């Protein structure tokens, strides 16, 4: 930061003047905070920027990872284009050393087209923020950037080929685009798994300073700890109303007015301001000005919790960013797509797993000579009940024994859970460990009573104990798998299970269903947290 910038900040003094008080500030009885701006602010800032300036700057600690991504993407693209050329024209014409190398009518060799296309592809990925450190490891957003870059590239290729009257083989383009895109997405998935592993070990993450009141800061700490994959490591918090030296286990390093100097002293990457912070619109704007040149990102966490990105739109009105939250959708084309995916997917899975079904049925009969299936009344969409099917994993009189075990219930809320349930049979423990007992529910999906993905199917006695908010789980069909399945299953608390189910209800999309089913496959392969419900 230059001496002139420091001088400007001194003149501003970062006070709220009486003329700049907006309606939000008038409504708040809290005193106006001041930002402490040291006279030696330029000296406190790092003498040499840790990262380059600009909205798409890369984290210094991610520089190596992002460089590796560029190299991996280029290698994947070249491999896809090589496979495409060989598939379309054969080994002979694809050979660079032969005189019969495949060419267009205008004389362009397809290996030359491939090289140009590879470079253009990487550049298009750069334009669409595929190498922006802020998106690395963030799943859907990262994959969306890669897909959009590929789509735009081939749209540009199609337009240019038409405008310049270049006769490029349609089979070449039709194979190169899907193959290259799929390989890029697979490569990014592998890179993301590595990055997530590093972040769960406490490495390659942004160092964050939180600002707000104690309640909101606590919520932010819990949310960020719940998802270490996002890459935010909280170092401290600036809180005015803290009860002690810690908030949710995070040290309180000062008040809200200390945020600027503490952020620079602690060399943080991000200052995250909660909606409860007493900065107001003018104070937040001045904080943004004060952070210019310090290489610290400013993140604002609105008071809207558990609302996914597709439902949140920012609409600027006279310089005021209004956050528009769209209502959740429970009808329309997306629901038609979901229902088709459910029934077709369930039928295909049943056909593929039929030999396993038969083997499991035989093992259950051999184990205790009892019935193969267990039927239990569950509550579905809009409170309608249905008979859910499962492979039987307990003794035949398990339901009559349940009242005797309620005193040993290990779960909170209306959910019953017992880690070492004596009612579970020998074969039942194996079936539960790998979730094989759930597969007969595919019949419920085909009949339209359940979905492949949705909230956990509740028992009538659980629904009777629901609070008004919890009843929103019944707005969609229950699922064979869901957010609860991929997040710990029976290891989750009741409140956490409800939160995950409500998040799904509020934000479901066919794309989210596909992602959950993919992660469910991994959970089944590496079981953890399986339990009775």
What report would you give on this structure?
The protein is of the alpha/beta class. 46% of the residues lie in helices and 12% in strands. It has 18 helices and 12 strands. β9 and β10 form a beta hairpin.
What structural class do you assign from the helix and strand content? Answer: alpha/beta
The general outline is globular
As a whole number of angstroms, the C-alpha radius of gyration is 28 Å
**Helical segment count:** 18
Number of DSSP strand runs = 12
Q: Helical proportion?
A: 40-55%
Low-confidence stretches: 1-34, 38-58, 96-100, 529-533
Largest sheet report: 6 strands, mixed
The proportion of strand residues reads 5-15%
Query: Span from first to last CA?
Result: 59 Å
**Order of strands, widest sheet:** 3-4-2-1-5-6
Q: Give the overall average pLDDT.
A: 79
* SSE order: HHHHHHHEHEEEHEHEEEHHEEHHHEHEHH
Features:
single chain, about 525 residues, alpha/beta, six-stranded mixed β-sheet, two-stranded antiparallel sheet, 18 helices, globular
Set down the secondary structure blueprint:
Elements: H1 3-12, H2 23-27, H3 41-44, H4 63-94, H5 110-127, H6 140-163, H7 170-200, E1 206-211, H8 214-226, E2 232-238, E3 246-247, E4 250-254, H9 259-265, E5 270-274, H10 280-290, E6 297-301, E7 312-317, E8 320-325, H11 333-352, H12 354-368, E9 373-379, E10 385-391, H13 398-405, H14 426-433, H15 441-446, E11 451-453, H16 460-464, E12 479-481, H17 494-507, H18 510-525
Helix pairs in contact: 4-5, 4-7, 5-6, 6-7, 12-14
